[in-house]
Design brief:
Elements lengths: L9 E6 L8 H14 L7 E6 L6 H16 L1 E4 L4 E3 L3 H11 L6 E5 L14 E4 L7 E4 H4 L16 H7 L7 H10 L7 H10 L3 E5 L4 E3 L37 H12 L12 H12 L3
Parallel strand pairs: 1-2, 5-8
Antiparallel strand pairs: 3-7, 4-9, 5-7, 6-8
């Protein structure tokens, strides 16, 4: 509601249905959420879609994005546990307009990792990865989304491909995709979206300082714990992007800084018995839409 373009926007709110074994307490919580989303005029136009059955997060996101994008040609996707800069919507709309015809650009992200080495220049960068915390895309890109992740088996035999998919071995996305496709340990739409973008050599646009902060690490969510492994302690709610990059290419220095940051994350002393990868997988299950 505080965003500068909220009054000009149409907001679709997807309320998933109850699980088959939902008890009275869960049904009461579901009802409370549905009442809450109807209490405010969050944007200029608000449409609430209430499901009678439980699709789960992955199916809900895929279905909802597909419906909206088929109607409008592009979409901005948010979840209920995110905080936004008041400039988030203006940034997203500006970027979706600027790069609409550039087929290599497959996503616009309002989120960026809190990499200390990033220079804060109120500018943007292109990176070869996707995110799921406040993002947008176009129908031309979303039509390439492969929910079956065809060819993912190559990651188990092609070391060079696995290395690139893992951002030069800085983060183990490959194991998550394999787990998604071969077990019931992960149910992620986001890892399949990254695979789809990866196969088409796609890029995503990022702000040099995040316009989004995840506020859902209170342990109450189904897919998150009580600690944000990539907490941005210096998040500026009023940060504004003023300069958009014109060259459609990876910003090599920032990409290297991101990889360095992901490789050097350490485990808090209270959880010294856990490995960085275990924390990473736990985070990815939340971040990528488990």
């Amino acid at each position: 509601m505080a965003n500068t373009m909220a009054a000009e926007s149409t907001l679709y709110i997807y309320c998933d249905g109850p699980k088959a074994d939902a008890d009275e307490a869960a049904l009461a919580q579901l009802h409370a959420v549905r009442q809450l989303v109807k209490e405010h005029q969050w944007c200029g136009t608000v449409e609430v879609i209430e499901k009678s059955h439980n699709d789960g997060l992955a199916a809900s996101v895929i279905g909802g994005v597909t419906e909206v994008i088929n109607q409008h040609g592009k979409a901005i996707v948010i979840e209920d546990d995110l905080l936004f800069s008041p400039h988030f919507l203006s940034f997203m709309n500006e970027a979706l307009t600027r790069y609409e015809q550039d087929e290599q650009v497959m996503q616009v992200s309002g989120y960026n990792f809190p990499v200390p080495a990033y220079k804060k220049e109120n500018a943007t960068m292109f990176l070869p990865l996707t995110t799921t915390w406040g993002w947008g895309t176009w129908k031309r890109a979303w039509d390439l989304m492969d929910v079956d992740a065809k060819g993912y088996e190559q990651l188990k035999i092609n070391g060079k491909m696995k290395d690139r998919f893992n951002l030069d071995s800085s983060f183990n996305y490959a194991d998550m995709l394999v787990a998604q496709m071969e077990s019931d340990r992960v149910s992620s739409w986001g890892i399949r979206w990254w695979w789809s973008v990866f196969l088409h050599n796609g890029l995503a646009l990022f702000p040099d300082h995040s316009l989004v902060k995840n506020n859902g690490w209170d342990g109450s969510g189904v897919h998150c714990g009580d600690e944000d492994p990539f907490e941005d302690k210096h998040w500026q709610a009023d940060y504004q992007v003023e300069y958009f990059v014109t060259d459609i290419e990876v910003e090599r220095d920032n990409y290297q800084q991101l990889k360095n940051y992901l490789r050097t994350q350490t485990t808090p002393p209270a959880q010294a018995h856990q490995t960085v990868m275990r924390r990473g997988i736990s985070f990815l299950k939340r971040k990528l839409g488990n």
